[in-house]
């Protein structure tokens, strides 16, 4: 990396999602001049929240576990945020099967109550959980390729057990929360993440919206929203970032965007890096927020947080989240808010459709599970991410080690949940922290950046 000629900034960060903001935060703490560029009008990326008439709608990420997210919790505490600002959700997750909601998904009580699984399937689930517990230490979310599952897909893993485990557990969970198709994505990152996050009873949410941490970080950084980066090149140890507002030079540039976007912006000279970035496909996500005139309950005796609707039962809808159960502040007093998630197989046909078409396509089936829904909706908002979550294909998993061993002296680097093929904010935060450390090791003595423009 360049250590002589002055540049506009020490580090240019492309993308103001949680990865870009975390990397910038770490570098600024170390005394570097950092500028963040974001195409959208606000920071947050896939952790953004939309606010309207007293409602707070989480566009992407939905929850954070109490354990397993060490880097995220360290970042939160460093920024003065306590657990009081991340209250427990408390409500259980249920699976729809044969006309009824069955609670206990991803919880040990599902072995007793069923959670939509038959007796033989529950025995196989117990077998699977016992096997995962025995091999727990080999499931390292930072090194998913090292797990005993290798490049086995979710569908192939499910075929080792009763068919119910695929139809009423693996597919609904990865389809709703990851946006994955089981036959395309590797099981190792999924199992690693499930082992890390623990049962839904320990999940939390940000009291003031899932973008709370992003907003806190952005408030103390030089973030240029509404600025589109069109190309990033490296020449003589300097990174040149071309934006629609003019070029910016930096001693290092960090691409903190989804891998397909990073590949479009920069052609990496290092073959192992380029091959992994090219292999990191993303699945799109598509959700609809339904603003309600009253807080409807999901169909169960318990006050459910989420109802999953398996593809075996429902072709369009993947699940329903009761946001007013997640936290009462998500909706005004006496009102309700539901999030409708789209089945991954239905997203391609809806992703580019008008918002009202998408809303109609999801509200109609959701009304079969939530009585009174059609009459209580006062407005809908559609949230879509073309690059929603890293797909974690077997090919990307096979190439990840070459990317992880990349040389830190190259003036362009990367951060994001896709580095670990881990579709979570923790994956993004851990990746950003590691990348920031690598950059700092190369820029030990900051040169004076030119006066900011």
From TrEMBL:
Pfam families the UniProt entry points to: Amino_oxidase
GO MF: oxidoreductase activity
InterPro entries the record matches: Amino_oxidase, FAD/NAD-bd_sf, Zeta_carotene_desat/Oxidored
Domain of life, source organism: Bacteria
UniProt signal peptide: none
Domain named Amine oxidase: residues: 18-440
PANTHER family linked: PROTOPORPHYRINOGEN OXIDASE (PTHR42923)
Protein name per the record: Amine oxidase
Organism: Amycolatopsis rifamycinica
The organism's taxonomic lineage, starting at the top: Bacteria, Bacillati, Actinomycetota, Actinomycetes, Pseudonocardiales
């Amino acid at each position: 990396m360049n250590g002589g000629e002055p540049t506009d900034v020490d580090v240019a960060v492309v993308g103001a999602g949680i990865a870009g903001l975390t990397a910038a935060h770490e570098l600024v703490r170390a005394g570097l001049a950092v500028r963040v560029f974001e195409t959208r009008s606000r920071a947050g990326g896939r952790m953004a929240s939309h606010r309207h008439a007293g409602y707070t709608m989480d566009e992407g990420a939905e929850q954070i576990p109490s354990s397993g997210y060490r880097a995220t919790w360290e970042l939160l505490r460093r920024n003065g945020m306590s657990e009081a600002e991340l209250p427990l959700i408390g409500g259980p997750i249920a699976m729809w099967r044969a006309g009824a909601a069955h609670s206990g998904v991803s919880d040990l009580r599902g072995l007793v109550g069923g959670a939509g699984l038959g007796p033989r399937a529950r025995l196989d689930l117990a077998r699977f959980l016992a096997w995962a517990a025995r091999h727990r230490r080999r499931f390292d979310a930072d090194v998913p390729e090292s797990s005993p599952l290798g490049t086995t897909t979710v569908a192939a893993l499910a075929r080792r057990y009763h068919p119910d485990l695929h139809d009423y557990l693996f597919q609904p969970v990865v389809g709703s929360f990851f946006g994955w198709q089981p036959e395309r994505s590797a099981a190792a990152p999924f199992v690693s993440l499930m082992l890390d996050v623990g049962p839904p009873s320990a999940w939390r949410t940000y009291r003031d919206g899932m973008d709370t941490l992003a907003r806190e970080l952005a408030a103390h950084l030089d973030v240029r929203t509404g600025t589109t980066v069109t190309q990033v090149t490296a020449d003589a140890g300097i990174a040149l970032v071309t934006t629609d507002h003019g070029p910016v030079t930096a001693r290092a540039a960090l691409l903190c965007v989804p891998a397909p976007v990073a590949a479009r912006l920069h052609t990496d000279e290092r073959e192992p890096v380029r091959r992994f970035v090219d292999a990191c496909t993303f699945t799109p996500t598509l959700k609809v927020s339904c603003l309600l005139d009253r807080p409807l309950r999901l169909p169960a005796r318990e006050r459910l947080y989420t109802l999953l609707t398996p593809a075996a039962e429902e072709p369009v809808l993947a699940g329903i989240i009761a946001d007013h159960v997640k936290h009462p502040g998500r909706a005004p007093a006496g009102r309700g808010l539901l999030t409708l998630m789209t089945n991954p197989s239905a997203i391609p046909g809806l992703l580019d459709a008008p918002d009202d078409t998408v809303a109609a396509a999801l509200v109609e089936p959701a009304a079969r599970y939530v009585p009174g829904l059609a009459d209580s909706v006062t407005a809908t908002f559609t949230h879509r991410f073309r690059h929603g979550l890293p797909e974690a294909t077997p090919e990307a998993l096979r190439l990840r080690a070459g990317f992880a061993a990349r040389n830190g002296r190259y003036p362009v680097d990367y951060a994001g949940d896709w580095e670990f093929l881990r579709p979570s904010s923790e994956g993004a935060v851990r990746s950003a922290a590691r990348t920031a450390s690598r950059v700092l090791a190369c820029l030990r003595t900051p040169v004076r950046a030119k006066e900011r423009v």
